[in-house]
Amino acid sequence: MNRSKWRSVGHELFTNGLGIAGLVIIVVFSLAAALAFLSPQDPNALNVMERLKLPSAAHWFGTDDYGRDYFTRALYGGRVSLMVGFASMILATGIGVVVGVVSGYFGGFIDNLLMRFLEIVMSIPSFLILLLLSVFLKPSVGNIIVIISLLMWMSIARIIRAETMSIKEREYVLYAQASGQNAFGIIGKHIVPNLIPVIIVGATNNIASAIMMESSLSFLGFGVQAPNATWGSMLNNAQGYIAQAPYLALFPGLFILLTVLSFNVLGDILRVGFEPKLIKR
Amino acid sequence: MTERLLTVDSLKVSFDTRAGENQAVRGVSFHIDEGETLGIVGESGSGKSVTAKALLGLISPPGKVIGGEILYHGESLTGLSEKQWRSIRGNRIAMVFQDPMTALNPVKKIGAQMTEVIARHRGLKKAEALKEAIRMLSEVGINEPERRVEQYPHEFSGGMRQRVMIAMALSCQPELLLADEPTTAIDVTIQAQILDLLKELKDKSRMSVVLITHDLGVVAQVCTRVIVMYGGMVMEEGLVDDIFFRPGHPYTQGLLRSLPKRDGGSRERLVPIEGSPPDLINPPPGCPFIERCPHAFGKCVERPPLFELGNGQRAMCWLLDKEAKTGE
Amino acid sequence: MRQLIIRRLLQTIPMLIFVSIACFAMVKLAPGDPVLSFVTPNMHAEDIERIRHNLGLDKPAYVQYLIWIKEILSGNLGYSLINHQPVLDQIVERLPATAGLMGVSIGLAFLLAIPLGLIAGANRNRWVDKLINLFSYIGISVPLFWLAMLLMYFFSVKLHWLPSMGMRTIGIHSVFDVIKHGILPCFVLAFGFLAVYVRYIRSSTIGQLKEDYVQIQYAFGSTKRTVLFRHVLKHVLLPVITLLGMSLADLVTGAIVTETVFSWPGIGSLGMTAVRGMDYPVIMGITLFSSVMLIVGNLVADILYGIADPRIKTRG
Question: What is the span of the domain harbouring residue C195?
Answer without folding.
Answer: 89-315
